[in-house]
Amino acid sequence: MSLSLTLLLFILVSTVSVTSTLRNLSPAAENKGVWCVANNKATDEQLQANIDWCCSYEGGFRDCTPINPGGVCYEPNTLRDHASYVMNLYYQNLGSTKAQCTFNGTGTQVRKDPSHGACIFISY
Q: Considering the entire predicted model, what is its pTM?
């Protein structure tokens, strides 16, 4: 086998291998650790208050565009899902401590990644 044919074969095999590996990785698969989400006891009013606060100046202007119409985390369009997303942003950006996930009794820490589809819940 000539050197150029061997080199071409090597490049083809390497490209297929790398492409297959990259296709199988998702940002959600790389997340490890603990997330903060809304608990099942939280009322709609409490969840809306959490969203309003986390997306406000006082809450630190978390990036709430993913939960807006057309955003990657808009669906499912529920207060619980939207609140969980912004509560987790707050929690992750302020040190990931249990105290950062209380949200007046409406938050809970989980070890199962709540990410779904293109909606990635970060975990540091």
A: 0.74
